[in-house]
């Protein structure tokens, strides 16, 4: 079993916490765009009150451990590993509760290149515990606005984890799935589940729009979020997201394996 101390050391060594790769300039730009309610950054969360840049910076300093100094405008930023550990413990608790009642669960990621393995292992564990891991609306088209214009994506599943693939690429080009922040895929999946008579998820696990889109609709949602993803932490503060775990969401995929082991152990789902 991975100890808390060993995991803390791994978080720092792998750049998952401590000084992270997401620069201060990127963080501040995201907070500015969220304050302007830019849908590229709100990720499906509807702010319940005014979130200005100063309020968002205070929130992110509290939830993630980024510098709360508004004069710090460039260079590296930080994630407090203690906040990551606390978030992972709460994340594991929610997974354990879902397993205990054999709840239907939906997994979805906008970071398939990095986080697919993390979620897929959790999906396997919950399925083994008797949960229905939902996979509705496979192949459904979703039109998403990108910086290149509106593009059509297809909903797909890999090892029980939902993702989207670009519809107009070859099979080889679509192998790993696409990076997206949009809440539209989770809305399409939930709509497809209702149309086909599938149960709706009692828990959604993932990141970006998968978590925010589900939480906005009143479904319990937990996920991982980087320092430039304020929407998940706003959702958590507003009660729409149950758990947002602060960490760098774009390091090497194998760096998340110790987190998987830790979460499964904490959730009593290890086999």
Commentary on this structure:
The protein is of the alpha/beta class. It is 43% helix and 17% strand. The N and C termini lie close together (12 Å).
Q: What's this entry about, in short?
A:
The protein has 271 residues and is an alpha/beta fold.
Strand order of the largest sheet: 4-5-6-3-7-8-9
Total number of strands: 9
- Regions with pLDDT < 50 over 5+ consecutive residues? none
Strand content: 15-25%
Q: Structural class of the secondary elements? A: alpha/beta
Largest sheet: 7 strands, mixed
Helix content: 40-55%
Spell out the helices and strands N to C: HEHHHEHEHEEEHEHEHEH
Rounded to the nearest angstrom, the radius of gyration is 18 Å
Mean pLDDT: 95
Intertermini distance: 12 Å
Shape field: globular
**Count of alpha/pi helices:** 10
List keywords for this structure.
two-stranded antiparallel ribbon; 271 residues; globular; alpha/beta; 7-stranded mixed sheet
Outline the secondary-structure elements:
Layout: H1 4-14, E1 18-20, H2 24-35, H3 39-42, H4 53-63, E2 77-79, H5 81-100, E3 105-108, H6 112-128, E4 141-146, E5 149-158, E6 161-166, H7 184-196, E7 203-207, H8 208-216, E8 221-225, H9 230-238, E9 243-246, H10 257-266
Parallel strand pairs: 3-6, 3-7, 7-8, 8-9
Antiparallel strand pairs: 1-2, 4-5, 5-6
Helix pairs in contact: 4-9, 5-10, 6-10, 7-8
């Amino acid at each position: 079993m991975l100890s808390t101390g060993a995991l803390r050391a791994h978080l720092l060594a792998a750049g998952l916490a401590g000084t992270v790769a997401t620069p201060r300039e990127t963080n501040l730009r995201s907070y500015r765009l969220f304050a302007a309610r830019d849908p590229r950054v709100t990720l499906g969360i509807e702010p319940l009150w005014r979130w200005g840049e100063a309020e968002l910076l205070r929130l992110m300093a509290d939830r993630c451990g980024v510098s709360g100094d508004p004069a710090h405008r460039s260079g590296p930023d930080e994630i407090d590993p203690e906040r990551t550990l606390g978030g992972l413990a709460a994340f594991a608790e929610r997974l354990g509760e879902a397993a205990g009642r054999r709840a239907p669960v939906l997994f979805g990621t906008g970071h398939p290149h990095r986080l697919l393995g993390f979620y897929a292992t959790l999906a396997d564990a919950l399925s083994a515990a008797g949960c229905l891991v939902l996979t509705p609306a496979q192949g459904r088209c979703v039109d998403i606005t990108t910086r290149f214009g509106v593009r059509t994506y297809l909903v797909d599943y890999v090892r029980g984890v939902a993702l989207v693939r670009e519809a107009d690429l070859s099979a080889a080009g679509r192998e790993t799935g696409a990076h997206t922040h949009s809440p539209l895929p989770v809305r399409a999946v939930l709509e497809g589940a209702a149309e086909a008579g599938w149960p709706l998820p009692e828990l959604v696990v993932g990141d970006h729009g998968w978590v925010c889109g589900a939480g906005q609709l009143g479904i319990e949602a937990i996920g991982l979020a980087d320092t430039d993803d304020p929407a998940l932490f706003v959702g958590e503060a507003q009660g729409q997201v149950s758990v947002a775990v602060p960490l760098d969401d774009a390091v090497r995929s194998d760096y998340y394996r110790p987190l998987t082991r830790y979460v499964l152990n904490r959730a009593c789902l290890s086999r």
